């Protein structure tokens, strides 16, 4: 799969932009703050329904605008599909597929991308929420239906937390809070599926992670992933060494096979923690409290890995994600996006990364300086300045103003069914 065209209206610093892409590698060049990352961020949003830089959609809408529109024409196996997304300041976001009404959560069925950015260093060194977001973004691309499960889980979690806070304020004892049982059932139903899906994904990532890491570093530092589950008593806020000893994936296969089903363990955890939850007014177990432990040579990467090793681990995780999507897909490779990555790598890792991604159908690269990008990936160049395309291969070096971009058309109103 590759992105053939991208149109933006009022997205980030772009009032309007229209770009054409080809298969292979394309470098988007511009000084910092000019908008090159905003272009690939828009593509990534269609695949994951989220930004790799911010948690709120509001930051994606240009200042002074009521909505932002992203349109991408995707080509795969000789077939094309047009995806359109409108992000609104007020009200729900809206989407279309081939001009027909769709739900935003339908878009990842068609758009598959893997984006690596400087922010990904936080996957190794940051908080558990960063690693959860990485796993969930990949899950949504592989099983788009899970976007709805995640949204439903978040809604139930908010309702349950609200009830806990209200009970704490009113001094209600745990034994008197029978209405909590209703929310527990729904939380367990949704949360157990998410926990199981994440554990399956962690297991599937291990082999391609090891291969990707070796391809970048040319050494075997034994990169490993272990689930850290709050329903089994693990504390994601513990120090890395403590988390390593508590990670349930450290058990043998025989021990893991006799564990009770996830739903039973989740329900038991909620029951045992109810008094503590009432004291704190918050839900203390569930996928929203889980983590995945990253290990190098048997030690937690967070706290032990060097800067270069952390970069290599984060990059290997993204390449492993791309390999899983490539295996799953009936539409070809995912689009690989490398956002300001080469500036952070030494010469050896640059060359190894270029070799690792060279076989993918489309690679989009952003860079402040073209010289940072290895020569095999820099044949096609798009230059960005001040939220405008100032040079691209499709315009012979000059931006095209012959006709307005189709992104200028707003989507139909809710009254017309979108």
TrEMBL record:
Chain positions covered by the region annotation Disordered: 232-258, 388-418
UniProt record, GO biological process: DNA replication; DNA synthesis involved in DNA repair; double-strand break repair; SOS response
Single Gene Ontology MF annotation: single-stranded DNA binding
Any one GO cellular component localisation term in the record: cytoplasm
Compartments, as annotated in UniProt: Cytoplasm
InterPro entries reported in the protein's UniProt record: AAA+_ATPase, DNA-binding_RecF, DNA-binding_RecF_CS, P-loop_NTPase, RecF/RecN/SMC_N, RecF_2
Domain of life: Bacteria
Keywords, ordered alphabetically: ATP-binding, Cytoplasm, DNA damage, DNA repair, DNA replication, DNA-binding, Nucleotide-binding, SOS response
Domain AAA+ ATPase span(s) in chain numbering: 22-388
ATP-binding keyword on record: yes
Keyword DNA-binding: yes
Binding-site list for ATP: 30-37
Main location group: cytoplasm
Gene3D superfamilies named among the record's database cross-references: P-loop containing nucleotide triphosphate hydrolases, RecF/RecN/SMC, N-terminal domain
Biased composition (Low complexity): 241-257
Physiological role: The RecF protein is involved in DNA metabolism; it is required for DNA replication and normal SOS inducibility. RecF binds preferentially to single-stranded, linear DNA. It also seems to bind ATP.
Entry similarity comment: Belongs to the RecF family.
Alphabetical list of NCBIfam families matching this protein: recf
Name under which the protein is recorded: DNA replication and repair protein RecF
Organism of this sequence: Agromyces luteolus
Primary gene name: recF
């Amino acid at each position: 799969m590759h992105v053939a065209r991208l149109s933006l209206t009022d997205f980030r610093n772009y009032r309007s932009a229209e770009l054409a892409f080809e298969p292979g590698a394309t470098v988007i060049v511009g000084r910092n703050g000019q908008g090159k990352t905003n272009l690939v961020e828009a593509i990534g949003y269609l695949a994951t329904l989220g930004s790799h830089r911010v948690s709120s959609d509001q930051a994606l809408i240009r200042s002074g605008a009521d909505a932002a529109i992203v349109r991408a024409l995707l080509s795969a196996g000789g077939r094309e599909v047009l995806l359109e997304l409108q992000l609104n300041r007020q009200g729900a976001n809206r989407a279309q597929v081939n001009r027909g009404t769709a739900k935003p959560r339908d878009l990842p069925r068609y758009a598959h991308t893997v984006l690596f950015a400087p922010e990904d260093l936080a996957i190794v060194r940051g908080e558990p929420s960063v690693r959860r977001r990485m796993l969930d973004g990949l899950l949504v691309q592989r099983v788009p239906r899970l976007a709805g499960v995640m949204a439903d889980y978040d809604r139930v979690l908010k309702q349950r937390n609200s009830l806990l806070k209200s009970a704490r304020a009113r001094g209600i004892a745990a034994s008197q809070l029978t209405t909590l049982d209703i929310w527990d059932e729904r939380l367990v139903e949704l949360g157990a599926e998410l926990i199981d899906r994440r554990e399956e994904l962690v297991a599937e990532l291990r082999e391609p992670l090891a291969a990707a890491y070796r391809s970048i570093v040319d050494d075997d530092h034994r990169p490993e992933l272990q689930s850290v589950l709050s329903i089994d008593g693990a504390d994601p806020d513990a120090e890395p060494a403590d988390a390593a000893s508590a990670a349930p994936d450290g058990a043998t296969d025989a021990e893991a096979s006799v564990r009770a089903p996830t739903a039973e363990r989740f329900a038991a955890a909620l029951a045992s923690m109810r008094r503590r939850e009432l004291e704190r007014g918050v839900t203390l177990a569930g996928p929203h409290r889980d983590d995945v432990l990253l290990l190098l040579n048997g030690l937690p990467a967070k706290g032990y890995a060097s800067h270069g090793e952390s970069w290599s681990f984060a990059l290997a995780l993204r390449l492993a994600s791309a390999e899983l999507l490539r295996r799953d897909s009936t539409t070809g490779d995912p689009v690989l996006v490398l956002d300001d990555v080469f500036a952070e790598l030494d010469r050896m890792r640059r060359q190894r990364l270029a070799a690792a991604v060279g076989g993918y159908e489309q690679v989009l690269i952003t860079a402040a300086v073209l010289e940072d990008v290895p020569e095999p990936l820099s044949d096609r160049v798009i230059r960005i300045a001040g939220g405008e395309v100032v040079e691209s291969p499709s315009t012979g070096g000059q931006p095209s103003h012959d006709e307005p971009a189709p992104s200028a058309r707003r989507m139909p109103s809710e009254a017309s069914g979108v």
